[in-house]
Amino acid sequence: MSAAAISPNLFEAARLGDAGAIARLLETAQPDIRRYARATCRSSADAEDATQEALWILFRHVGTIRSLLAFSAWLFSVVRRECLRLARRAGVVPAVDEGEAEAALLLRPEADLRLDIAAAFEALPPHYRDVALMRDVKEMTIDEIAAALGTTRQTVKARLHRARALMREYLTR
C-alpha cells in the first residue's frame, strides 16, 4: 500500500477514533489489501476472506498503529498471516519450523530458487522493493540509497530490514 494515498491527517484522525476517518481509511486501503491478498492467498475465496479479516483487524486496531510509515507494513503482514492461516486450516500448508524452512531453501534447484527470489521481490510493497533492489542487487551503499530516494539513513535501514524480513517470510512459507 502506498502511504502517499493516505494523508497524515486522515491517518491520525482514524488513529484517534474518528468514525468518518476510519471509514475513509478502510475505503482507501481496501483495493490494495484485496490486490495483495489475491497475489498471496492460494485461492480467490481465501483472498476475499483474508481481505475481510484484514479490514476487520484494521478497524479494531487502527488506534494501536504508531505511525503512517508503519501502517502498510503492518497491514500487509496481517494479510500474509491471514492467507497462511487459511492455507493451514485447509491443510495445504503444514506448520513448519522456521529453521527447517530456511534449510529447505538451500535444497531447491538454483533455477527454482532464482524464480522464487524474483517473485519475492515482486511481492514486496514498492517502497521496500526499491530499497532491497538498490542494496542487494545494485549493491549501493546506505548513503547512496538515502540520497537517491531523498530520505534518511535510518529510513533506508528500516525499510531494508523490513524488506528482507518480508522476503524471508515469502520464501519460507
Automatic annotation (TrEMBL):
Gene3D superfamilies recorded: 1.10.1740.10, Winged helix-like DNA-binding domain superfamily/Winged helix DNA-binding domain
All residue ranges annotated as the RNA polymerase sigma factor 70 region 4 type domain in the record: 115-166
Domain RNA polymerase sigma-70 region, chain residue ranges per copy: 26-90
Pfam families membership: Sigma70_r2, Sigma70_r4_2
Keywords: Sigma factor, Transcription, Transcription regulation
Source domain of life: Bacteria
Family: Belongs to the sigma-70 factor family. ECF subfamily.
Record-given protein name: Sigma-70 family RNA polymerase sigma factor
Organism expressing this protein natively: Bradyrhizobium agreste
